[in-house]
Amino acid sequence: xxxxxxxxxxxxxxxxxxxxxxxxxxxxxxxxxxxxxxxxxxxxxxxxxxxxxxxxxxxxxxxxxxxxxxxxxxxxxxxxxxxxxx
Length: 86
What we know:
By secondary structure, the chain is mainly β. Helices cover 14% and strands 53% of the residues. The strands form two sheets. The protein has a four-stranded antiparallel β-sheet, covered by helices on one side. A three-stranded antiparallel β-sheet has the order 5-6-7, with helices on one face. The longest helix has 12 residues, at 72-83. The radius of gyration is 12 Å and the shape is globular.
């Protein structure tokens, strides 16, 4: 299976989302990571948390599977990217 990648921010400074082998992986240069099974994802939401920051939340079966804070435009881009590939 081909990997699908999204670099967040300038040259990936905000992290990377990768879809590989049925999993959505997030990694950030400062060590924030998560790995979620694509089949478990029901939806993705972005909550505003103030000062231009947003919280990207991965939701599955009514449960928060993963979340990460980032600037709202980056979170919106990630949300759209994930929802078009699940």
